[in-house]
Amino acid sequence: MISLKRRRGGHEARVEISALSGTFEPEWLRPVLDGRWEPIRQEARERMRELRPPAGESGDTEQERARVMDGLRRLAEQGYPRLGFAKEYGGEGDIGGSVVSFEMLGFGDLSLLVKAGVQWGLFGGAVQALGTERHHSRHIRAIMELELPGCFAMTETGHGSDVASLQTTATYDPGAEEFIIHTPVDKARKDYIGNAARDGRMAVVFAQLITDTESGESHGVHALMVPIRDERGRALPGVRIEDCGRKGGLNGVDNGRLSFDHVRVPREALLNRFGDVEPDGTYTSPIENPSRRFFTMLGTLIRGRISVAGGSGSAAKTALALAVRYGEARRQFERPGTGTEVKVLDYLSQQRRLLPALATTYALHFAQEELVAALHEIQTATLQPDGAGEGAGDDDGKAEEWRQRELESRAAGLKAIATWHATQTIQDCREACGGAGYLAENRLVQLKADTDVFTTFEGDNTVLLQLVAKGLLTRFQHDVEDLGTIGLARFVAEQFAEALIERTAARSTIARLLTARGEPDEDDLLDRAWQLRAFEDREKHVLEGLARRLRRAAADDADPFEVFNDAQDHVLRAGRAHVDRIVLEAFVAALDRCDGPAAPLLAKVCDLYVLSTIEADRAWFLEHGRLSPATAKALLETVNELCKQLRPHARTLVDGFAIPGHLLEVPITQGPPATD
Amino acid sequence: MISLKRRRGGHEARVEISALSGTFEPEWLRPVLDGRWEPIRQEARERMRELRPPAGESGDTEQERARVMDGLRRLAEQGYPRLGFAKEYGGEGDIGGSVVSFEMLGFGDLSLLVKAGVQWGLFGGAVQALGTERHHSRHIRAIMELELPGCFAMTETGHGSDVASLQTTATYDPGAEEFIIHTPVDKARKDYIGNAARDGRMAVVFAQLITDTESGESHGVHALMVPIRDERGRALPGVRIEDCGRKGGLNGVDNGRLSFDHVRVPREALLNRFGDVEPDGTYTSPIENPSRRFFTMLGTLIRGRISVAGGSGSAAKTALALAVRYGEARRQFERPGTGTEVKVLDYLSQQRRLLPALATTYALHFAQEELVAALHEIQTATLQPDGAGEGAGDDDGKAEEWRQRELESRAAGLKAIATWHATQTIQDCREACGGAGYLAENRLVQLKADTDVFTTFEGDNTVLLQLVAKGLLTRFQHDVEDLGTIGLARFVAEQFAEALIERTAARSTIARLLTARGEPDEDDLLDRAWQLRAFEDREKHVLEGLARRLRRAAADDADPFEVFNDAQDHVLRAGRAHVDRIVLEAFVAALDRCDGPAAPLLAKVCDLYVLSTIEADRAWFLEHGRLSPATAKALLETVNELCKQLRPHARTLVDGFAIPGHLLEVPITQGPPATD
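The joint structure predicted for all components is written out below.
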């Protein structure tokens, strides 16, 4: 038991930290981490044995693209894509499994991960989620087997985050019973589209659906299947394909631009699950409200966002595994009087760089696992047979919509936090490995370059966190209604999905922890109940403050755009506080499931996650009287002490991820040369 | 005048922010920024007109290297390297000018910048600083004219930060009057050496100098000129050259590895300014103390570190110029009820990302200019004619050593802070430009990739900041002497340079500001005297706390390594607080020099620099009772308000850098296509 004391003014803070004794085996951690989809993870590891460890990109774009396309073919042959598709068409219908399997690809070549995501997640996923039987029976098998390589053509040069404002048009011509796909202005060209520059033959094109050519009024954004290349790979008439060229990374993925000059496709090309056009041009939809229809359509595509969060987690794990191995092998500066040089991981500065990041990676892993399970439950119910699960009773429908909205909010929030975490962690790992970390042969720079865009694609992180917060605001719905006069509510609704999010049904453990004792001691930093309350309290306070601020502005009759814009930092803080709470609850739930010998180690990792998270935001806790200055200082020392306690187990913790060993066999992890 | 109020408990914080009225012209800013070396900056801009805007690396390493070598030849033809070398050998002897001229290259191709730095800064600089007339007269002209491309072979695979422990040996053979250069173990190979893989013909090799082969005892690390390739580019006998291969960036620089198998060079190959070997093997040196000799030698090489800080500044400026232009051109989401989409730079979240970074870039610019001036004064006095400026009276010598140590400390600190700032800023700029920011054609990813290693080379930032702090600790020298019993002082002295650093002689403005009024109001965030005191007070308090902590540990008879290691986060904080203060003082001095129409704008930029810096560390100010919670909250809003005030001038501020326009002509800054 270590006791830290800090005194300031009349106040003393004392933290009692129990020692972490004994040794731990990675094999004890693996089952906890592998969780529900353990067999799928194991299978993925087996499959990856064949992959050579990805060195840095060759630099020759065409060669990179060919290599990655070959990898994609191998995945198709191995049946990798089957998990994600319905059984009727040769799939296995394991939605959660498909996301986990995708996540595992992130230990290897990130270009392959993204290309697989484009082909089977985005393109195939859109055909499955937005299409109906006529599309499924005709295309799903060809998509799985890579006979039909395709694109997901949503983003345009002019509009990315603001999908509702896309400018490409799909105008119905009842005479020919065809849609005319057209790019009316340059900035309406589809941009950054994976699979477009080289391999794609078909594109799911998102366009404003117009049936009344007189008014030109749109039924909103819909998706259509548009052939873009013939069998020999030549662009089809009216389709203009450009190459986005070199990117910061992911150069094995052929991103391109698509423009359409009055390209005609048959009426049946419309993915018509949520909106259809009769031969005579009559528009029909099972969802009357156009805004609700739009968000329902987008909502079915949530799997992509969740997959990106998972993939970024694998990249962060890989970077940490490399940096920790290096930290054990690399020595620098003699320890005075010993004649021995110090392992760099023995320096506090290195521990501070890597271990809180490692703890957060564990926390995000458990949150991701929970998110995938929620996706699995919801989409297994609603997506399996065509249209089944829909049209349930009104109450059921409401509950379902509620769950779906919550899923979307969590996916958005976790994607933002997880991808930012990966970017920062990989950067820190690179720096922790010094000059060697900068060499392509050691993988870190490629990991950084490849994952960098994860913070941007599948939703820009800043926009996503705002979406989360604005969803939470609807908890204060009557407040928002008060604001009606200045159009604030309308503004929220227009700019973002009107997500209705409730707090998680408190899991039994958390409930037990929170009710087990009275108000906890301010100083009891290592009490799980105190930790849970600290996160929950911050979320609640930030959110309530935001609602109050908006209400005040409304009373002042301020300009709604200015009001929201001035509060944007507050909004982002609210989103982040919410996600932190969700993540901690997932970690606590995982600890509860874990009754094996790994439990004491994981509990320390959780402590480090919590306290380093609070440390990073401790100004807020101080400003709001949640931490005394003395306790805040004790917190810093507690984080140091936890780093010191976990340092001997760092290798065990990264080995727990069970990343296939050959993917980590790079010069940097091989220790000093034998002649040393 | 805008008034912000925050109330918490009984305390109210009020901040009065004056409005920033009128328009400002970039031309008003340029002379303030260009400063003392304005003609050199202008000349550099002219020279850059010939450069094509650097797109992303082609990916073909050989092609990149050839292109950059061609660029280097053009620079040589244009006389670029002359500034940095003494007049006797055809140079211009403008040391400060040479650093500024190097810095300006950072607006363009960073591979060219680094290759120029290797050839003329590191290699040529070492020959000039460590050699004597026999080396100068023979080589300097050839180095300038690129007839003799060379390497700076210091870092080894096994030792980078710990230069004193390098393992390559230079053993004197009196019979042959030659040195035998040898790589005794694999990890003693020279690593990451620029110019080694392809172009270098000579290397300045740092090695343990041994004259007594019986004992094998070293006189410490010395530098020798060792030929590595013949005229036709083939490795010389006994020299093994490997290629480091692809890197995270800078692939136009040919980094390689050098190993030596008993390679013989004549006695005169030793760069003998600080240590020489007589024909009979007698070692002599003008500096008796080996540790002092070592640090004096390293100290003369300080120009490289200062140049890196400057180069990183240019890269950050370029990234900001690109992101601000994009932020003005790019629109997303309609402003409700207007039919017009909002410029993304009008969102607070974008302003928060870019404008404090821009303010800090200004602050670092002024600090860099001051550092370069200090370097110029010191090296112009000591480096010009061979050995002149040395051997002055004892008192003069002490004062000189003092100034030199202070220069080294500032160079170390500013290099660390400036390169971390560049890395973070370029990352933020990339994200602020979304998917377009990820395309190589828009330069940002290449800027990020190229400058990433700046945080590592020319001194790892974490090690450098510790060096700064440990230097400051010697202010508490009698305390350190108290610690003698546990060897703490020895540990500091052994592990780091024993830099003796005093606070700057307070410039008259700062002195005037600080004495103009009594103790300032806590809440007077925008009072320059309050700001200066806040930075100074934090530095002093952190440093004194650190000294107390070490003294306490000494009293407890603790293990010195553990004591220092446990305090490493405290040490880094002290280094950072010190650099922040130096930077602010430089900004204040620049404001004082600026009496033109740009003054009100620059004053606002300085406010934003100060308050966003305090904001980032406001937990410390709260923990130590320097800010009340109410004032801390008012601070956040003041930063928001300053962002809002500066937003209309963002373009002016980046235009003030006067980056040659064609280097910013990339698709992302060209605004929406004409047909929009």
